[in-house]
């Protein structure tokens, strides 16, 4: 149950687009379309941003989008805003009927 | 509105035991599986355990298997995590969480468990 691999940090200027990758294996991301993404501000509980690879929950901005290719999932934030500065985590269902989170990515708005 | 309120955290010595609870409201608790997820200070999220809606199926992370037990009391709308043989690396904020299919759409505020002598 190794954690999914994410870049430690990603940054961008307001209005730009950034993409966060989430690398797994054929036991998780590569086999199941059960990848979700969470945003976490300091001292707060995580918030669901994307589920089932590319679906947005009600109330989440359409600036957030998800995709997957092979063993790697991605979260793209377009039109970057100051409020998007936070930690982001991916998660996947696994072949062991368990779940695994990514290592986390700190997004900085320059 | 959905509410998940954890309690029972505190300081415990290495090798000790602790039980944390999560009181659920605002939804039909007995219809949902439930998760525990933890986060060590300054670190990332780690999935801990999942229990099915009726308690018949339980799944654990390798890091806690054999030491932690997830359970629920649907008559009390409460989720539990019994933690035994605690180690320093179990120090974390423990969140209970409600799933939305294979994702998590509601999280509690968390309860801090500190394992230290």
Mean pLDDT of chain A: 97
Q: Give the proportion of residues in helices of chain B.
A: under 10%
What is the molecular shape of chain A? globular
Structural class of chain A: mainly beta
How far apart are the termini of chain B?
Answer: 40 Å
What is the overall pLDDT average of chain B?
A: 97
Which spans of chain B of ≥5 residues are poorly predicted at pLDDT below 50? none
Strand content of chain B: over 45%
Q: Strand tally of chain A, please?
A: 9
| Structure class of chain B | mainly beta
Explain what you see:
- The complex is a heterodimer of chains A (110) and B (117).
- Chain A is built from no helices and 9 strands.
- Chain A has strands spanning 9-12, 18-23, 35-40, 47-50, 64-69, 72-77, 86-93, 99-101, 105-109.
- In chain A, strands 1, 3, 4, 7, 8 and 9 form a 6-stranded mixed β-sheet that branches. Chain A has a 3-stranded antiparallel β-sheet with strand order 2-6-5, with no helix packed on it.
- In chain A, strand 5 and strand 6 form a beta hairpin.
- With 117 residues, chain B is mainly β.
- In chain B, a hairpin with a 4-residue loop joins strand 7 (68-73) and strand 8 (78-83).
- The A-B interface holds A 1, 3, 32, 34, 36, 38, 40, 45-48, 51-52, 57, 87, 89, 91, 93, 96-104 and B 35, 37, 44-47, 50, 59-63, 95, 100-105, 107-110.
Fold blueprint:
The complex is a heterodimer of chains A (110) and B (117).
Chain A: E1 9-12, E2 18-23, E3 35-40, E4 47-50, E5 64-69, E6 72-77, E7 86-93, E8 99-101, E9 105-109
Chain B: E1 3-7, E2 10-12, E3 18-25, E4 34-39, E5 45-51, E6 58-60, E7 68-73, E8 78-83, E9 92-100, E10 103-107, E11 111-115
Parallel strand pairs in B: 2-11
Antiparallel strand pairs in B: 1-3, 3-8, 4-5, 4-9, 5-6, 7-8, 9-10, 9-11
